[in-house]
Amino acid sequence: MENNSTHYSYDTLSEAVNELQRRGYTYNFLVPDTKDCVHCKEHSFELPANEFVIDEIYRFEGMTDPGDESIVFAISSTKNDIKGLVVNGFGADFGFRSSKLVEDLFKKTSV
């Protein structure tokens, strides 16, 4: 995880996404069900987990149900010269594949 001297804090998911996009995290990545990578549908581009780093992580609880959580990963790849976001939700429909990659992403932040 990148060591920024500036610490950011956001009250809402939309505030975090908007500000991160303003700071250059313009690719929107999804976690495919069948691969260990992130995928940018808009640019038809996949990024394997070993080709990016997590710069920042933000977690938000649901307004009406604290069990509904969202997490935003701001990721970057110097190899591909891109910065983007992985926005994932935690809840009843949160799939195993997504949770496995998110778990791997968390592990990368502690290394």
Give an overview of the whole structure.
This protein has 111 residues and is of the alpha+beta class. The protein has one domain (13-110). Helices cover 23% and strands 34% of the residues. The protein is built from two helices and six strands, in the order αββββββα. The protein has a four-stranded mixed beta sheet, sandwiched between helices. The protein has a two-stranded antiparallel ribbon with strand order 2-3. The termini are close together. The model is unreliable at 1-5 (pLDDT under 50).
List the helices and strands and how they pair.
Elements: H1 13-22, E1 27-29, E2 37-40, E3 45-48, E4 53-61, E5 69-77, E6 82-90, H2 96-110
Parallel strand pairs: 1-6
Antiparallel strand pairs: 2-3, 4-5, 5-6
Write down the Rg. Answer: 14 Å
As for the number of domains, it is 1
**Which structural class do the helices and strands define?**
alpha+beta
Task: State the separation between the terminal residues, measured CA to CA.
Answer: 8 Å
Biggest sheet layout: 4 strands, mixed
Quaternary structure annotation: single chain
Give the uncertain stretches in residue-range form.
1-5
Shape: globular
Task: Output the strand order for the largest sheet.
Answer: 1-6-5-4
Number of strands: 6
Features:
34% strand; single chain; alpha+beta; two-stranded antiparallel sheet
Summary?
The protein has 111 residues and is of the alpha+beta class. It has one domain. Helices cover 23% and strands 34% of the residues.
